[in-house]
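Researcher: Checking consistency across runs. Here is TIGR01212 family radical SAM protein again:
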Amino acid sequence: MNTLPFRTLSSWFREQTGQPIRKVPLDNGATCPNRDGSIGRGGCLFCSVPSFSPIAGGGRGILGREKAEPLSPEDLTCAFERLALSMTRGKARLFLPYLNGYTPTNLPLEILAPQLRALTQHPLSAGAALCTRPDMVSDELIDFLSSLVKSGYLIMVELGLQSCDDALLRRMGRGHSVRDFTDTASRLGNIGVHTCAHLIFGLPGQSMENMIESTMVAAGPQGCHGVKFHNFHICRGTIMDEMMKQEPWPLMTLEEYARTVAKAVSLVSPNTVVHRLCASIGREHLSAPQWAADAPAIRNRIMELLQEMHIQNTTSHT
């Protein structure tokens, strides 16, 4: 039973399957269109693949993979099984393969479809989850995902919106628009895919008002079923790291981030699934701010603020 003041991903998993599910991060061998030249080179200004996907970024440095090296369905399912079995010490006996390295959908469907089909059919699997860009979901992929949903698999797609400000997205080198996000979220939602919007709070030049507005776009009528919050931080060796060294600018404090996320969570619909309150990053990857390395402290402060809001709301209605 969920006793938190918002709908959690774990509670949503139980609603769907009646049991706990754990996500298993995987790299299917794709690269990013912002790295392979189809949209840009070098990635987004803040991107460091090893910091958020050690499996995909291992041994490749900050620049990461610039050409696709797709895994066979057999190798991908073997990796899934090995990682899933290493996680069985907890209560979960069902797992969700989670393709989160680079842009997993940046592969021809004749390669991606067999990968997804093999992962969904594995006896330990509940379905599949993909983390991708809003501009990298083709009509053909929509049709294929629809067939998986109709077959009874749990399919989840996480879309990297980051901000609802197109000018800010351009400054960060994202290469997609807010319209790309709303169009893709709608197309996926129409076929029964659970969608989640990835948001970054604290981007350079981003106001608190924009962060709240971005949340309302992400979880609004034209948005997603869920939201995932990410505290902006600078990873070592990234373009943003070099920019900060040359001309430092003030970064969001832990308290500012926690209060903004708490406010955002309090404003979304009770039906919205909050996938995550903050990012986790190892100190070996982090340049600034140092508080970003303490994810438990960030989560705890957000929860304290949400509980205070809940008590105040309850008191005001008695």
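Researcher: Does this match what you'd expect to see?
Model: One thing to look at in this run: The beta strands are 7-8, 21-26, 94-99, 127-132, 154-162, 194-201, 226-231, 234-235, 273-276, 286-288.
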